[in-house]
Amino acid sequence: MTPEELVRDHTIYSCVMGSRAFGLATEDSDTDRRGVYLAPTPLFWRFDKPPAHVEGPAAEQFSWELERFCELALRNNPNVLECLHSPLVEHADATGRELLSLRGAFLSRRAHETFVRYAAGQRRKLEADVRQHGAPRWKHAMHLVRLLISCRDLLRSGELRIEVGEERDRLLAVKRGEVSWPEVESWMNRLQDESDAARTTTPLPDAPDHARVEDFLTRARRASALRELPPHAYDEVVQGREPGGLTGQR
After folding, report:
1. By residue range, what is the domain housing residue 66?
2. Fewest CB within a 10 Å sphere: which of 14, 174, 214, 239?
3. What is the pTM of this model?
4. 195 and 141 in a common domain
């Protein structure tokens, strides 16, 4: 089974991300798609495991295998959490809908560390551009401010909302280079301070609900195995034995 076939035939959830999901799209904006696929369980019984992620097959498309996606979401990876909270869902089967129902199980106070750490790395790149070229890449600056707004509001409310709402016009002004770099820096600094303050009072739990997510993943893997196995192996799995009578053999 090729990576393209995994995405084509086994995607459980897909959405639009980027500027269109953030409410920042303009006429020249691309359509970025992200997805999650559930690789058939029997593929993991081989030495050659299925890929943890796949780029493509279409342009501006990226997908994660479900287990990898859950691992990153439990770490509060910003890109993965935002994918899970996109308002532009294009596809969700029964497993995908259950994944969406677990949005809150992934969120925790770890978001402060992961969002802020990611933002710091992006800011260093912008500062390097300013030193070298006299100005940052304004589109990247806009998205960094947007990320910091999202982080602050997540910590304050306990909910991740990625649409920028009333901040749209000001953020697009940053993208067009109509806001000076010192003003953008001041905005970033204020958002950072507000995120730090919100960390101490956030309603988010200290850690994500790892057990709940693991239960979901285990059930998804088991259901996949039962769908993919031939009848005789299906009976063995139901009875708690490994397919082919391999239980206990190493």
Report:
1. 3-106+229-238
2. 239
3. 0.87
4. yes
Are 233 and 244 in contact by the 8 Å Cβ rule? The answer is yes
Statement to judge: residues 69 and 137 lie in one domain? no
Number of compact structural domains in the chain: 2
Read off the pLDDT of residues 135-167 as tens digits, 9 standing for 90 and up.
999 999 999 999 999 999 999 999 999 999 999
CA distance 138 to 178: 9
Measured between alpha carbons, how far is 43 from 213 in angstroms, rounded to an integer? 21
**pLDDT for 11-41, tens place per residue?**
999 999 999 999 999 988 899 999 999 999 9
**Residue 81 located in a structural domain:** yes
Co-location of 194 and 115 in the same domain:
yes
Q: Which of 161, 121, 160 is nearest to 144 (CA)?
A: 121
